[in-house]
Amino acid sequence: MGGVRASALAEEYGTPLVVYCRETVLARARAYARVDPEALVVYGTKAFPNVALLRLLAGEGLGADVSTRGELEFALRARVPGDRIVFHGNNKSDEELGAAAAAGALVVLDALDEGDRARAAGVETVLIRVTPGIEADTHRAIQTAQAESKFGLVADDAVTAVREARFAGLDVAGLHVHIGSQLTRSAESLLAVDRVVDVALRCRAELEWTPRVFDLGGGLAVRHSLTEAVPEPEQFARDLLLRLRERWTEPARMIFEPGRSLIGTAGFTLYRVGVVKRTPGVVYAAVDGGMSDNPRPQLYGSHYEALLANRADEPVSGIYRIAGKHCESGDVLIDSVDLPEPRRDDLLAVPATGAYTLAMASNYNGVPRPAAVLVADGRAELIRRRESLDDLLRFEN
What we know:
Blueprint: H1 6-13, E1 17-21, H2 22-35, E2 40-44, H3 51-58, E3 63-66, H4 69-77, E4 85-87, H5 94-103, E5 106-109, H6 114-120, E6 125-129, H7 155-167, E7 171-176, H8 187-207, E8 213-215, H9 233-247, E9 253-256, H10 260-263, E10 267-278, E11 283-287, H11 296-300, E12 307-308, E13 318-323, E14 332-339, E15 347-351, E16 371-376, E17 379-384, H12 389-393
Parallel strand pairs: 1-16, 2-3, 2-9, 3-4, 4-5, 5-6, 6-7, 7-8, 8-9, 11-13
Antiparallel strand pairs: 1-10, 10-11, 10-15, 12-15, 13-14, 16-17
Helix pairs in contact: 2-9, 7-8, 8-9
């Protein structure tokens, strides 16, 4: 990938290793930028907070979508300008509001009491997050716009929030909506656009206030398996933009917040095969990582594909289950995958692991988290070093 052999990467950086293709990241960023040159595209930092990736995206004019003080610091270390940072969060502390204000970030108000607190912290410009009452077609744990969601404000409360935030002296720039993650179709997102415009129309009629910004969120899926089909980023964003332009004819700037769809397919994880074990019902190939570096199969029932990176041209010989090394029977990375017969020391590559893997990784069983590299033009750049045992023990007395 990027002109570098997987075997060379494993030799130099060890395994597990998360490998990102620089050109794929840039191609995805440029696809969003083509939809509307005037729009602000902000990277959903939670997909993988990394200074090098943020700096790469900032060079393309992208900003950062952050939801904690820590994610904000990643963006600032990458020198993302404050006016390209959108600060979210359903329970922002006063410290976080103050940090957002100091950075000059655009703050998304998520609760009725947050306007006064934001003003007291020095925040100047805000959006109001609308909960449109839509159940996205995705795993329930990553739905964010259903009626009982912890995020945002239902329509009546959103109108109230606009009124109260303006009374508090805040510049209410516009409205925000986001319905979930790993979205495999646009239907619910288009409905969300309709409902946030309905709130805007109410605000114009009842408050004589007109939004100049619509943040349409992110959440577009990527293909993790061969059976999945998802929209292309450019088409997905264009569909949302066109729906908004149909419903709202006054001038307004768009914000898009892609995360997974920017970096998900740009990354793969490289593992080394250890034990290969036959049981009465299945043949296991165990790798030197698992749920500590990619918990998505356990959290969301996510499905992945795989190939033997050092024997990719060999024919399939059977169906194998890819297990991790952790002390859990549920530590299965891939339940069933067609491979040549795995052998000890083979390199197993799992595609589409660039998002929400290292970002959600842990040190379960005392396992250090993997390194990450960025590859392009036959060269690899270390963008996150591998943790050591000393790193694991540094907080112990």
